[in-house]
Amino acid sequence: MSDSKLLNGTVYELKYVDVFWEMYLPDSRNFTPEARQYSIAGWALLAQKWVHYDGALKLALGAISLNTIGQELGKQWMIQEGRELYGAALQDWSGHVSGEEAIMMLTKPENYINRDAHDLLCDGRLRSSTFARKKCFFNDHAWKTVPWWRIRKTEKDKLIDIILEVPELLESLDNTISTYDGEQHIVNMQTLSARLLRCEEQLENWQKQASQQLMIGEETQDATGLAASHLMSIYWAYRVLIRGVLENYQFYQEIPASAISLSEMRDNILRRTVRFSSAKSGWFGKQIIGFPVGVAMRFAPPARTGEYPAICETVSARLS
């Protein structure tokens, strides 16, 4: 029987999606409540739950699974079948989904109080802020409070509350730079500097409050440890980003002399790449480390990257 004939029936029935999950996040089946409170892998867990009930989701996951596994194994027929399935999934999906964030904007925070919707919101908030340089509606007070009326905020939720301030700060920076107007420009930059320092202080306070819990989490060698390490990498990425902006625009006089250095922040990210590059972390580990490593290499590239996994040199080469 040829490879392509194996596609009789649905991809999901032939367990390609199951194979994908095993390769994407090996410990996903063992995601405990402790791991979930740190992780942004909630979408993957919900997808495994709802794929049985949503035809479009089944098509989309089948397409992703075939394409990804095909690339890993060098099977061109799988890549091609994955692309064809993806096209069908897009047509089906576009009928009732016009983008996760757009849909949320048309609803109310009250819609995200209950478990599954709440979990999607928690993960979606972070994705909306990554690489963004414009204020997001998630930073509004109602979106930071109402969905947690019945559910206690995790340390991840508290961290993302602070992170959501950053895109708005970067938008203010862009606007201030593009509209130079003499003395007012200086005032605006000083105001922005104070806001950036305040955000950095909030991040530092978060770490002080959460450090013991996260330290214990990172010590475990399972999904909980991976999730805790990822959360700390995100934390350090935003510390690097804010400090990098402050130094790039020469706000040195505003930075306390006792503050941790930019290179120390960077190393707190890069030393964690060993864990994310391990086979046990699967494709998930390699995917999630891209943003923290990219920020670290952008604002504080080390003189030598040989002591870190290859992903550091790859990111450094792309940024140069």
Helix-strand layout with pairing:
Layout: H1 16-24, H2 33-36, H3 42-50, H4 55-73, H5 76-93, H6 100-105, H7 115-129, H8 141-145, H9 155-163, H10 165-178, H11 183-219, H12 223-248, H13 262-270, H14 273-276, H15 282-288, H16 290-299, H17 310-319
Helix pairs in contact: 1-4, 4-5, 9-11, 10-11, 11-12, 12-13, 12-16, 13-16, 16-17
Model description:
By secondary structure, this protein is mainly α. Among the domains are: 4-93, no CATH class; 188-319, no CATH class. It is 66% helix and 0% strand. Helix 1 packs across helix 4, helix 12 (223-248) runs antiparallel to helix 13 (262-270) and helix 12 runs parallel beside helix 16 (290-299). The longest helix is centred in the middle third of the chain and has 37 residues, at 183-219. The chain is globular and about 65 Å long. The termini are far apart. Mean pLDDT is 78; it is low at 1-9 and 93-98.
Give me the number of helical elements.
17
Name the helicity range: 55-70%
Mean model confidence by pLDDT:
78
**Helix/strand order, N-terminal first:** HHHHHHHHHHHHHHHHH
Strand content: under 5%
Which regions contain 5 or more consecutive residues with pLDDT less than 50?
1-9, 93-98
Shape: globular
Radius of gyration: 21 Å
Structural class: mainly alpha
Q: For the report, how would you describe the main beta sheet? A: none
Number of strands: 0
The N- to C-terminal Cα distance equals 48 Å
InterPro entries: Osmoadaptation_assoc (IPR053178)
Question: What brief labels describe this structure?
Answer:
17 helices, disordered N terminus, 320 residues, mainly alpha
